[in-house]
Amino acid sequence: MSEENSGVKLNDVISVLEKFAPKQLSESWDNTGLLVEPYTPRNINKILLTNDLTEDVALEAKQHNCEMVISYHPPIFAPLKTVIQSSWKERIVSLLLEHRISLYSPHTSWDSVKGGVNDWLACAFPFIESIPILPGEDPNTGAGRLLRLESGFSLSEAIKSVKIITGLKHVRLALGKGRTLTDNIENVALCAGSGSSVLKKVPKADLFLTGEMLHHDVLDAAQRGISVILTNHSDSERGFLTGFSSHLQSQLDNKVRVLVSEFDKDPLTTI
């Protein structure tokens, strides 16, 4: 069977993606869904998952002969006035179109949905209750997660667990005023990515976990006795892709091979 006759249609992939996380779960400011669709359609046999679509990742998709890229963060956000070779984002769009590679971005729909990025991050903790910080129309979906933990879980254990689930050797910690590493924590508020605006809605917690926060927001939390763990923005999200790749491949009846990018990484590292 030729590649043109194998695999699945693009719309079938999109249907599976939006069955998992309906597009309407996205925040109103976000740019989610199908962002690049080549003029001449072709079936999807290989999909590359990435957190961020850089030029290296786009070339990786080309090298693997992928017909589709799913980029968690939408690389097209501000309107493009041209598609020429003068900027990296325009070069990516040009490359995708030239090689007939479709692009889909779920972003905040994956944050909001039950079983999505925030619930993956919550798995670092032994919680007995998890609810969205900002619930949507469905109270099981929404931005962030507020966790009530089992007893006897310390801040030092939380740090270790966050490192394990994210695969990081280092995280940044702001110790809450009057707190120690051996203190037990009873509740955690978390938000993958940049969580300041969501975490501000939480009046009280023992720990905030997110990718990045503004200095003054970290300072305010620490002075209120809330410890803060920061991982770097995309390091609080990227680990979700490994588990989701297996889920997506299964939902597509194994007719499509789903790869996770080896070139995708946060631009910031601790050295």
Automatic annotation (TrEMBL):
Residues reported to bind a divalent metal cation: H73, D111, H233, E237
Coiled-coil ranges from the UniProt annotation: none
Assigned protein family: Belongs to the GTP cyclohydrolase I type 2/NIF3 family.
The keyword Glycoprotein is assigned to this record: no
GO CC terms in record: mitochondrion
Origin: domain of life: Eukaryota
Keyword Metal-binding found: yes
A GO MF label: metal ion binding
Entries under InterPro entries matching the protein: DUF34/NIF3, DUF34/NIF3_sf
Protein name in UniProt: NIF3-like protein 1
UniProtKB keywords: Metal-binding
